[in-house]
Structures
1.
Amino acid sequence: MAADARRRLTNIVGGSAGNLVEWFDWYVYSAFSLYFAPVFFPKGDSTAQLLNTAAVFAVGFIMRPIGAWVMGMYADRRGRKAGLTLSVSLMCLGSLAIACAPTYAAAGLLSPAILIAARMVQGLSLGGEYGSSATYLSEMAGKERRGFWSSFQYVTLIGGQLLALGLLLVLQSQLGEAGMESIGWRIAFGIGAVLAVVVFIIRRNLTETENYQKVAAAGNRPKSSGANLFRDHPKEALLVMALTAGGTLAFYAYTTYMQKYLANTVGFDRTTASRIMTAALFAFMLLQPVGGALSDRVGRRPVMIFFGIGGALTTYPLFVALEKTTSPFAAFGLVMAALVLVTGYTSINAVVKAELFPAHIRALGVALPYAIANTLFGGTAEYVALYLKQIGHERWFYIYVSVVILGSLIAYIRMRETKHASLIDGD
């Protein structure tokens, strides 16, 4: 029994470490966009440049449903381990392409074209990563602590974002503004590519989950496909989309966009904004296992309802309060208030979705509906926020986030308690 527990823990840690690097590579783009925006899009003011990079960020999200569909089926048919290995290979390719991309001054339109293509490849990668890693961690965890262990998907997701911001702070202190704009952002993407190679090696040595092994041994299982997903499990697929909409929009509003908001709207310098978000994200990361463990005790629904009510009621006043803030410490407190609320979604969303589907279609069922909703709401969050700011109606974004969270709250209230009706086998 002790040996089985050690094996399970080793694989959870190994799978989580790979997830961290995947998300580090993805978030380097957002963390360093303040510096490379003028390199790829030299014309216009700072808001216009950020709007262009946000549009490319959204393009990466457009590819995520395709990646979720293709690699979700791949992980269901070939194994969770195979899906995880393929996704990190694509992420490495995308990071390396951006690190080596020519500037607009040197190559003209070829420069942003390479950036767009690289983000499309990374979008494919991440579309498959979410479903494969959520399924792997949920299946590898034991029943009684499944919420706790699966929460490490977002520990490593946030950890990747935190690592990207931490690298940003280190490079800012060592290179200065001019160095960051010329070479610093290239160093960051280069580091991401190297780390992805390390993760590839780690993932090649992971153990396959028993859930997948049982399904593979059965032989005559139904095929994992988009048609079968929406034909055989339409309610579950639509529920995943509804669960995701408010949570993913809030997550990107409170994390990736917040760094730019603190600099572009509140008025902090870029280094101070980065420091505030680094501290807040570290605390947010530590909250994830707390939310996961709480769901093992009280159920998944109450934890998600906590986010839904809090997010719908407080998003507008929190952003308005931030507009008037001049103290970094006050800004940190307000950002943390938002992140405590969104923990009710982030800490357990992976396990909730995994518990809805049978093993033969679980990776696709988790990945594809999530990716669709994530593209529509998460991937466009920065673009919508910056566009509304540009046309003089920034506060409409606060209302938009609140309304979408309210829509998800209705789904949280109406859903069944997946902790007690889980379709994941195992003790």
2.
Amino acid sequence: MEISIDGEAVPGLDGQTVAGVLLAAGRMSWRTTRSGAPRGVFCGIGACFDCVLTVNGVPDVRACRRRAADGDEIRTQSRQEDA
């Protein structure tokens, strides 16, 4: 299985969450706050919204809750004031 993160191909395993694929690829963050602080997985159970990203054009998807699917197109998100 392979997904795309900001245009870069990233391999994964069937059944992994998007967060699991990204963490296994060495990515610890994939979103920034208004202040520019990096965010990734915090709670890992879908209670917070630190791990949100855009999946196949749908914004604010929690990476820890969404199972990755072959061909998913993932985009990082930014909440920075100047973004």
